Amino acid sequence: MPAKGTAEEDIHMAHQISRIITIGTLIVACTLASACGSTVGAADEDRSAQQSAPSIAPYTSSVDKDSDGIDDQSDILQNARAYIATKPAYKSEYYATGYPNDEHGVCTDVVGAALRGAGYDLMTLVHEDILAHPERYAIDTPDANIDFRRVPVLNAYFAAHAINLTTDTTDVGAWQGGDIVVYSNHIGIASDTRNADGLPLLIHHVSAKQKQYEEDVLGTFPQELVGHYRIS
After folding, report:
1. Distances, alpha carbon 166 to alpha carbons 29, 225, 226, 227, in Å
2. Which of 30, 165, 170, 213 has the most CB atoms in a 10 Å sphere around its CB?
């Protein structure tokens, strides 16, 4: 009965083919699973190798100069933000009032406004120090209205009256929001917002072309970093 035998052979052959296909499918699936497993493992290794920005507790001063219930460090930071929120236009000009009164200003006015709001009148404090210690300042004729708005003068004042800190920007834990940051001819306030490396952003006012008052430039500003201070 050749016809019947042929049918049985066909059925057997079909079973064999189905088995081969199933085994092949399993092999492919295992191969893919192995490959995916390797990829996930590598991704996990990459993620574990990446260092997240360090968690640094904010500094709180033990001093509240203006007795408003806010410590100096926080007060300075808050007032720096309040000043830039007014969006001052950049203009270097002499004011008989000392502090600009026309919604204009320069880099030193960020610091002047921040400290003034915390109870430190730099216009008066700097002028008094210039008269008492002229050797600290390269000033022939003191002028209270403008001296406190000059970067080298402020650097000399803070060096004498503030807490002197490191200028090493790789030591991110040493930098806190509310710190004063001084370059060779520029000055600003450290933000409490940090970049991926843990270094604070800089609250500053550098030019009329500046798009943001708070920028990630503290460690890359194109001037020598000459001072890092904390008021109290």
Report:
1. 58, 10, 10, 8
2. 213
- Stretch 79-90: mean pLDDT: 98
**What pLDDT band is residue 16 in, cutting at 50, 70 and 90?**
low
Q: Are 79 and 118 in contact (CB under 8 A)?
A: yes
CB 97 within 8 A of CB 214: no
The residue to which tokens 């497993």 are assigned: 37
Average pLDDT over the chain reads 84
Structure tokens at 6: 């042929």
87 DSSP 8-state letter: -
Kindly tell me if the per-residue pLDDT of 4 is higher than 70.
no
Phi, psi of 86 (to 5 degrees): -80, -10
**Strands (DSSP E) found in the chain:** 89-90, 104-105, 163-164, 180-183, 186-194, 200-203, 214-215, 225-230
